[in-house]
Amino acid sequence: MKCASFSFELGVVIDVRFRAMGPRFIGIMLLLPIAACAPSLKSKTAGSIGCPPDEVEIANEDSSLGWGSSAKTWTASCRGRRFICSENTVTTSGKYATGISQGLACNEELDAGDQESSSSKSVENKPTPPSRPTSPPPKSVAGFDFGADMAAIQQACEGAGRTWTSASAKAGTCSGPAVDLGFEAEAHVTFCRDKSCALTLVHQPAASWIGTLRGLKEKLAEKYGIPVMNTEGIPDGCRQESQFVKCLEDATLRVKFKWDWGDGNRIEFTVGKPYDAEGPSAIRVTYVVPQSQVRANTDAL
Question: How many CA atoms lie within 13 A of 143 on its CB side?
Fold first, then answer.
């Protein structure tokens, strides 16, 4: 209240003694007590990075001035994480009033040479710029060929010592991959025009969901390039392993990456419960080929 009282009293003095000097001078003088009473950088930063003010450390303060505006940057550290913060201030003055418009933003500092992984930890989740995969789409996955009929898919499944089940002519499931993937996964195959046109690998890690997610995504990125879309980041409250699994079970967290060739070929990598059906939390990698390509492959056999 002392600060507010001081501002009011100074404003009265300015209004009485310096009215003749014009509104611009009065506006600048009024801003002095307001600036003196501004909240600390720790307080302003706390809400943007989700950390209590008394745990925030401020460093590397810098500022620049322009005509009627100013900008300030600083580094904030809390619980082992660093954030780059900036604030822009624009002074507006008119005949009757003077005010300040401010904008504050904080984003987690990028690791050197690892912009992709660091962007997932940004306070403001920003999607990866669209780009085409760096390798052609696969013709077969987990030992199953696209464009093959159900008999061929079943033969590949059972030939690998797996069990094949099918409830209709449009879909079937192999109890595991037909070739070694380095992990166990069910293979769900979809048929278009009696030919395989989509395959989903479903894997439920016994432990280390986060490590498995990162490992599989890195392998796919090595082969096909950076995914074109990351629809959902991982919130702070879901980044520990136990929290991550709970967030998946509560359906409060779903992670999705996508590689898209732009011609109907695509790979979707999802973690969590299914988006459009009932089912358990799992890591799912879905490969899809367009029906036109299925027909072309069939004619070429």
Answer: 21
DSSP SS3 for 197: strand
Are both 67 and 94 inside the same structural domain? yes
Domain boundary residue, one of 69, 91, 109: 109
Tell me the C-alpha distance between 12 and 213, whole Å: 63
Rounded CA-CA distance 75/248 in Å is: 33
Q: Helix and strand tally (H, E) in the chain?
A: 8, 14
> Which domain covers residue 15, as residue numbers?
1-38
* Predicted model pTM: 0.55
Q: Which two tokens stand for residue 182?
A: 């380095």
Tokens of 256: 């999705």
Tens digit of each residue's pLDDT, the chain (301 residues): 445 444 434 344 344 444 445 554 444 444 444 444 567 888 888 888 888 888 899 988 888 776 667 788 889 998 888 888 888 877 555 544 454 556 788 888 876 544 444 444 444 454 444 578 999 999 999 999 999 999 999 999 999 999 999 989 999 999 999 999 998 999 999 999 999 999 999 999 988 898 898 899 899 999 999 887 665 567 778 888 888 888 888 877 888 889 999 899 999 999 988 877 778 889 999 999 987 766 544 444 3
Kindly list the distances between the CA atom of residue 76 and the CA atoms of 88, 102, 167, 168, in Å, as whole numbers in the listed order.
17, 19, 57, 58
Q: What are the angstrom distances between the C-alpha of 158 and each of 57, 190, 217, 245?
A: 61, 17, 28, 33
CATH of the domain at 84: 3.10.450
